[in-house]
Amino acid sequence: MRLHELAGPGLAILLAACGQSGETTGEAANSQMAPGMSDSMDKMEMSGDTAAMMAKGTGTVTAIDMTEGKITLDHAPIPEANWPAMTMAFKAKPELIENLQAGDKVAFDLALEGGAGEVTAIQKQ
Fold first, then answer.
1. How far apart are the C-alpha atoms of 72 and 59, rounded to whole Å?
2. Which residues on neighbouring strands pair with residue 11, listed in sequence order?
3. Can you give the pLDDT at residue 36?
4. Whether pLDDT at 41 is above 80
5. What is the DSSP string of 15-76?
6. Does residue 14 have a pLDDT over 60?
7. Is the pLDDT of residue 120 over 90?
8. Taking the complete model, does pTM exceed 0.85, yes or no?
């Protein structure tokens, strides 16, 4: 497909003034890729699976917000998420956090998706 067909006649006129046809071939597009990038995107395996990745962690409860359904944990590094030790809030179903309080040491499971985590299981240590 020609660029002017996608962008309209104004672009075609500008390209013609520069001596370009407005047509981009696959070879031309691949030659403009950053060094080290593969020129064959169709060989990449793409997973259709959108399931969350699972991770395990340990830490200390610092806060619980039953209204929002969140628990704040001061946790150790979580290698599966490539997270260093830090304090952060996670979503959690109320039945998972109702018997916990600030100061409790816990082990927990997380569902990781889109840079965030949701506690799927938690137990006092």
1. 10
2. none
3. 44
4. no
5. HHHTT--SB--HHHHHHTSPTT--S-GGGS------PPEEEEEEEEEEEEETTTTEEEEEE-
6. no
7. yes
8. no
Spell out the domain ranges in the chain. Answer: 3-35, 53-124
Give every CB contact of residue 63 below 8 A, 6+ residues apart in sequence: 71, 72, 89, 102
Count CB atoms within 10 A of the CB of residue 17: 8
75: Cβ contacts below 8 Å, ≥ 6 apart: 57, 58, 59, 60, 83, 85, 86, 87, 88, 108
∠87-113-111 over CA atoms, to 5°? Answer: 70
Amino acid at position 84, single letter: P
The yes or no reply on domain 53-124 and CATH 2.40.50.320 is yes
- What is the structure's pLDDT at 29? 42
At residue 51, the pLDDT reads 62
Confidence of residue 34 (pLDDT cuts 50, 70, 90): very low
Angle (nearest 5°) at CA 86 between 81 and 91: 65
The span from the CA of 70 to the CA of 92, in Å, is 5
